[in-house]
Design a protein that fits this description.
The protein is mainly α. The chain has one domain. 59% of the residues lie in helices and 0% in strands. The termini are far apart.
Length: 85
């Protein structure tokens, strides 16, 4: 059976890359952020995610970019109050 796309899981790779890019841009100083680019990334992410999962991808990305941060705090920041981390 031929694989779908280039990697076989292209949609997941793109979703994770978009979430990580958006979180990284959000962590820049406001003068260094490109609001238009961030809005465009958010639209692409929303189009690529299953409904209701954007915040989960963003929380996971923030945890990846900040490995020493408190994961529970990050998940709460994205609306996951009783999240097992």
């Amino acid at each position: 059976m031929p694989k779908k796309g280039i990697t076989g899981h292209d949609e997941w790779v793109v979703t994770e890359a978009l979430a990580t890019a958006l979180v990284a841009l959000e962590q820049l100083e406001p003068t260094q952020q490109s609001r238009q680019q961030m809005d465009d990334i958010r639209k692409l992410l929303a189009a690529n995610c299953q409904p209701g999962t954007i915040n989960l991808h963003l929380a996971q990305a923030k945890c990846r970019l900040n490995p020493h941060a408190d994961r529970a705090v990050i998940y709460r920041e994205y609306g996951f109050e009783d999240w097992e981390v």
